[in-house]
Amino acid sequence: MEPILKARGLVKRYGKVTALDHCDFDLMPGEILAVIGDNGAGKSTLIKAISGAVTPDEGTVELEGKPIQFASPIEAREAGIETVYQTLAMSPALSIADNMFMGRELRRPGWRGKYLRQLDRPKMEKIARDKLSELGLMTIQNINQAVETLSGGQRQGVAVARAAAFGSKVIILDEPTAALGVKESRKVLELILDVKSRGIPIILISHNMPHVFEVADRIHVHRLGRRLCVIDPKQHEMADAVAYMTGAKVPEAEMEGA
Amino acid sequence: MSTPPSSPVQSFEAAAADSPQHVAEFDQGQSSFIQKFQHALHVTPSLVPLIVLLMSIAIFGLLLGSKFFSPFAMTLILQQVGIVGIVACAQSVVILTAGIDLSVGAIMVLSSVVMGQFTFRYGLPPVMGVACGLICGTLCGYINGWLIARMKLPPFIVTLGMWQIVLASNFLYSANETIRSQDIAANAAFLQFFGEKFKVGGAVFTYGVIFMVLLVLVLAYVLRHTAWGRHVYAVGDDPEAAELAGVNVNRTLISVYMLSGLICAFAGWALIGRIGSVSPTSGQLANIESITAVVIGGISLFGGRGSILGTFFGALIVGVFTLGLRLLGADAQWTYLLIGVLIIAAVAVDQWIRKVSV
Predict the structure, then answer these.
(1) pLDDT below 70 — which residues of chain B?
(2) Which of A3, A164, B42, B163 sits 20 to 30 Å CA-CA off A68?
(3) Helix orientation angle between B308-327 and B286-296, rounded to the nearest 10 degrees
(4) Domain encompassing residue B161
(5) Where does this protein chiefly localize (chain B) (predicted)?
(6) Which value does ipTM take for this structure?
(7) CA distances from A199 to A84, A170, A185, B147, B294 (A)
């Protein structure tokens, strides 16, 4: 099977610091790939290089076999790669529907949309409501309530729903459970599995080993700016993953680039 | 849950399995009157100034009777707040982006001087003079916007500087010379267009007042029902989040300051209609008065919250207090004192609404 998203030899330098050192990356169709690594290993630079937030100095990225180069996250989004940032990127005072369609609002058909540039509120609200109920988030009663009135888990849910609604090819989740309590984390993990069951591949960046081992199909271990190995969570212990990540243990040769 | 409970990975969560499964449900119903009221204010922020406005009209109406409660007095208030109302619209849009525009008054005066001088000094047709004035205002706004969005300078500093620069340019260019009302009326009546009056019964309207009301309605529509309007709120709320969500923050900011400059230029045109002449020394308090109207109108100085209707009500409240106290024969200082109280009360209410997000 060909990877849906493939990166080869990515290099990114910030002055004298090499954040990415000839890094490879593969995401298979329909899988959840977790990316783990110690702080400063270059995880976020890798993700930013894929999501268009930074441009790599060297190397290639291919989406479905076609080379891509993004100048901004907006371009990556147009290509079907959606990112849920750790900060969620939502405007607290605006409604759920407004937030879901921020930057890609729908206009009314006909003269009211064309000349008055009127937003198609009913349609936006309907799509937002449908997407949230698809993901089982309709404990949110009112699609017009401000995002600041939602709990942390619900906000995360709305952000994931936004990505799932528009991310046609790849969804990137940056630390989706970091700020949440036990039960809210559970909801979000269920949500992630739900999105996966729709066939959209997910890149999950997380520090939470139990969560990673629970939902991931494969785990990309990042160390010193490159991919150290890819491990199967069913055949490895959490302790191994942590050992690889920190350099306490060296993976066996056949696992490299697996 | 898909993972079997026997999984060692998840066993630490087993204890939580029996606890209620609801994650922060919304408690609706059984909220007290105060909570309902607070919720209504949160959803409709212009409600507070509307209530204050209606109450102050009622109180002055009771105290003064038909002297105050007449179509003539009511429309007089509209005429008196006309200029500040227009400038406050410009200020509102800027403050919604968490910015501030201290140069509004200066841009207004410079634009009116350009309209007058281009017509009288260079002999342009008045329509062209007005057009040049509008372009001048937009250009000043563009400079503000460019410095704030591209150079990342704080709006307070940029517009504080521009205030001085524009005002000085205004005095240098006009050579401190006033164009007299009679000359304008005789040669370029179009400049006084916004000052023309018409009567409906006892009510007296000027085109400037009509323009202000239309401007408020158009801006209310644009801010609420277009993508650009939503982007203004998003940028004011959290610019980084807006950027990541796909809003072009710089373009939104520049367009906001350009619009502010354009509206100020229209205010300059209306100013010629109101005072009759073109005077480089007029309108000096417009920036402070516009900020007052915006704050009393319930728009948050921290951006992203409030509505343009609130600003309109805020401007009218100031007008009602000014006229009402004058008709009561009170010292003019009482007006300033009460407006000061209102400003602080408005910000206190804003904090109260924000404190509990309901």
Answers:
(1) 1-31, 356-358
(2) A164
(3) 110
(4) 47-353
(5) membrane
(6) 0.85
(7) 18, 10, 22, 46, 50
